[in-house]
Design goal:
272 residues; alpha/beta; D-Maltodextrin-Binding Protein, domain 2; 6-stranded mixed β-sheet; 3-stranded antiparallel β-sheet
Amino acid sequence: MANSNPPRPARTTLRFAVPPTLGDVHERSAALQSYLTEALGKPAEVVVPTSYETLAKDLLAGKVDAAWAPPFVCARIEAMGVRVLVRGVRNGASTYRAALVCRADANVTKDTLQGTSAAWSDRDSVGGYLLPMAWLREQGHDPAKLFFRQDFVGNYKSALELVAKGSVDVTSLFAPAAKAGQGHTTGLAEVWPGQESAFRVLTFTDESPNDGVAVSMSMNGPMVTELEKAMLAMKDSPAGAQVLKDLFHADRFEPAPRMGYRALYRVALASL
């Protein structure tokens, strides 16, 4: 018997996902939505999945057409056939690292973490979890035994707030690559402006490729090409440059090399 269900109508909008770890992105998402709508000549919709895992699943299932994805998610979905179109460039670098931080007045060092507590943004966040986990493993620590408590709170700012209140001892967030020449600068000024002096860096980790824009395998070729052009041209307009700064924390995008995130599997295995 023939299937009586009519085919699902093609979506008339381009659905672009951004991760929840960016915090409250309502205004910034609206600016991205406006930029993409104008650049592509097609209505765009920006959505915020509840987690990195949901973001990856929605992209693989075609529920979203494209997504701003963290490096480990890029590595995972790239291995499953998803293409990463472009990646962010910050301060002239296409890599970044993580900073393990505590409260400025805390009696904690990188060598006295035994028995402390931690808050992390997301299990798939490279800057907010995976890189510090890999660093701890390399120092000979088992994180499950090192910390008496570990919480996952969804975004960088929420984790920093717990540290600031003294509810937990440490957290981690993204930081510029060492070659960017910014010394001990972290992403604090972007995540929680004005609170930089409230925290102290315990250590910096190794570096990782920057976040990237990945596209669903169900997205048609011409639209993939148009999206790539729009992302690469974002730096060339005042509105686009503002979106780059406010939402993507990047100076520009560059084409992402094919399978450019493969090295992150080592980080993922080290974090298990």
